[in-house]
Write a structure and sequence with these properties.
7-stranded antiparallel β-sheet, mainly beta, 4-stranded antiparallel β-sheet, 2 domains, OB fold (Dihydrolipoamide Acetyltransferase, E2P), about 270 residues, Ribosomal protein L2, domain 3
């Protein structure tokens, strides 16, 4: 995967740095693995906006991803596909019984690769196995929080955790955020880094491309009226010398994690 900088023939293409999609195969999405993607527009079941700046995205289907990878049979990668619902690429895997599933692709995954899942699996790129069977110092992704629940973390493009050490019942993993945490040795993970690692260097180039993704414009609080935002009002450009807050007066940038959560005892080092 590589990025392409557009020729500056228009103001919008001057700053655009977009992927070339060379790793994407020309196959169409599997119809059996698609479902309708209902968008909420940032509203709850009462119709109240609970998440601001959402709505107006391009229409697309949701790809059904196999996050559990609980099929004991070895599979073959048929192709690498684009997923509009996530930053990473997905891989179409076909099993000997004819079933096809989508999984999160790793950075080195290509069509024709064979991948296996289970306890008797070799720790090779793309294979999925418990932490107790993975060598220390290995880059892993698609990690489970609870054994058998399916991968929940380390799923973004280019993300990778490191298995630091193992004991009888727990393993110590360093997450992409820098947090070091204990996991059960029965939690499963995929060997390798998540695909599309250069996603962080993309530049959309224009506001319209952000609207295609369902992100509406944001308005700064200092340009609002006092009735709409605590930072609004005043003569000239002034925020009143007070800390940055939300429209409801709560300070921004304050850590909100509950230190009394049961999982707090599993964290060895908090993220930086």
């Amino acid at each position: 995967m590589s990025l392409v900088k557009r020729r500056p023939v228009t103001p919008t293409s001057r700053f655009a740095v977009l992927p070339d999609f060379r790793e994407i195969t020309g196959t169409k999405p599997e119809k059996n693995l698609l479902s309708v993607h209902h968008k909420s527009g940032g509203r709850n079941n009462q119709g109240t906006i609970t998440v601001r700046h959402r709505g107006g995205s391009h229409r697309h289907h949701y790809r059904l991803i196999d996050f559990k990878n609980d099929k004991p049979l070895p599979g073959q990668v048929m192709g690498i596909a684009y997923d509009p619902n996530r930053s990473a690429r997905i891989a179409l895997v076909r099993y000997p019984d004819g079933e096809k599933r989508y999984i999160l692709a790793t950075s080195g995954m290509k069509p024709g690769n064979r991948i296996t899942f289970g306890t008797e699996t070799l720790p090779a790129e793309g294979n999925r196995l418990p932490l107790k069977d993975i060598p220390e110092g290995t880059n892993i992704s698609s990690l489970e929080l609870k054994p058998g629940k399916g991968s929940q973390i380390v799923r973004a493009a280019g993300a990778a955790a490191v298995l630091m050490s193992k004991a009888d019942r727990q393993a110590q993993v360093k997450l992409p955020s820098g947090e070091i945490r204990f996991f059960s040795v029965d939690c499963r993970a995929t060997i390798g880094m998540v695909s599309n690692p250069e996603h962080r260097y993309e530049s959309l180039g224009k506001a319209g491309r952000t609207r295609w993704r369902g992100r509406r414009p944001k308005v700064r609080g200092v340009v609002m009226n006092p009735v709409d935002h605590p930072l609004g009002g005043g003569e000239g450009k002034s925020s009143g010398g007070r800390p940055v807050t939300t429209p409801w007066g709560k300070p921004e940038g304050v850590k909100t994690r509950d230190r009394n959560k049961p999982s707090e005892r599993l964290i060895v080092k908090h993220r930086g």
